[in-house]
């Protein structure tokens, strides 16, 4: 699977070609949403957007290449919107909440986030994409915490950022799965996130931080 | 992948046969640990335990069937030890900590937990196994919370249990990955778990619970 060809056969240039590719992408996203990656195949995609399977293969070598392109575009969209938020003058917690709002907004716009994210978990060829995204997210969080005064050693601050990113991811996915992006446990988790962020910039080191979390 | 044959070709009865199968399983676990599921293949497994590939195929149709059997045994071991803990007379937090100790103990004994768990994420045919395990774990937690007095509606208590299970999983995996099963963020997360458990049995409903978590 690692050597799977994920490149588009050729980049679209003409308006008409672009339109076909967008139809393929939309159909893929819709099918992913309906039945997950397990039921996805190129025949079903071609059928759904009413094009000949040969046209599909003119652009994409396999279904994974379509999902790869979708995931790339979607992650790029997240990163661009994120940059705008990180560069703003908002406070720590306000930036955190703005990131949350942004992600929920993207979810509504892209509609299929959950299915796409799951596909990335299941298709080994997409793991690289996901890992690169995680690394960037963790780096961003470390920079944010440093900017707001966290002076922990790199190992500890990275561990906190990794925790924030991974639990954010799993709790948000679970909430979306339950049909409520901001359900009970997402709201509870958010309070916990706020507490961790504020403690991280207030405490000189992780020992003081840990002490302060006494149950 | 969903129709992949995961059954052993025949159940071992003789002592000598059992020994071969154990060698195959140990080799698979070791290879998983070294290179992950991506590099695992039946030839490498046969070579590692110094048996003919034909002998391997006499018992297992493919590598997934070996991983499936390993995962089944491992989850069964967890469930048996868990039952003993759940049936004890310990308090809520003490039971929680005993479960944690038990899992860390299994990890040391089975040595390869992380790799096996990741394999379950990546091999679609193993998802059913993982989902059944998650459902059981969540049910167990709901029963535990009820036993200790939580009287929330089923939807809310289940959401809490799902949160506890999934974040437990992702934080523990991350800690093991970093080479410290009880690293900084695991310890922080555990304090948060304790707080959630105690609030859940103390608060009449999830609204009071949420109020009490005010940051």
UniProtKB/TrEMBL annotation, chains A, B:
Keyword check for Cytoplasm: no
Highest taxon above the source species: Bacteria
InterPro entries per record: Homeodomain-like_sf (IPR009057), HTH_TetR (IPR001647)
Keyword DNA-binding in annotation: yes
Domain HTH tetR-type: 18-78
Record keywords: DNA-binding
GO molecular function annotations of the record: DNA binding
Pfam families linked: TetR_N
DNA-binding stretch(es), residue numbering of this chain: 41-60
Protein known as: TetR family transcriptional regulator
Native organism: Pseudomonas alkylphenolica
């Amino acid at each position: 699977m690692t050597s799977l060809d994920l490149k588009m056969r050729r980049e679209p240039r003409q308006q008409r070609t672009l339109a076909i590719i967008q139809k393929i992408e939309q159909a893929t996203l819709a099918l992913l949403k309906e039945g997950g990656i397990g039921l996805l195949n190129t025949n079903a995609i071609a059928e759904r957007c009413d094009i000949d399977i040969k046209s599909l293969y003119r652009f994409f070598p396999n279904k994974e290449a379509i999902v790869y392109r979708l995931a790339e575009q979607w992650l790029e969209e997240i990163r661009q919107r994120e940059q705008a938020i990180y560069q703003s003058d908002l406070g720590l917690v306000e930036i955190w909440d703005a990131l949350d709002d942004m992600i929920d907004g993207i979810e509504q716009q892209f509609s299929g986030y959950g299915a796409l994210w799951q596909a990335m978990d299941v298709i080994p060829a997409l793991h690289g994409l996901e890992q690169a995204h995680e690394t960037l997210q963790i780096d961003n969080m470390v920079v944010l915490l440093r900017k707001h005064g966290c002076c922990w050693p790199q190992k500890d601050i990275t561990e906190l950022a990794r925790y924030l990113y991974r639990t954010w991811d799993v709790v948000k996915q679970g909430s979306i799965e339950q049909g409520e992006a901001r359900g009970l446990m997402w709201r509870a988790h958010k309070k916990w996130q706020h507490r961790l962020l504020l403690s991280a910039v207030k405490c000189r080191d992780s020992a003081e931080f840990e002490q302060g979390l006494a149950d």
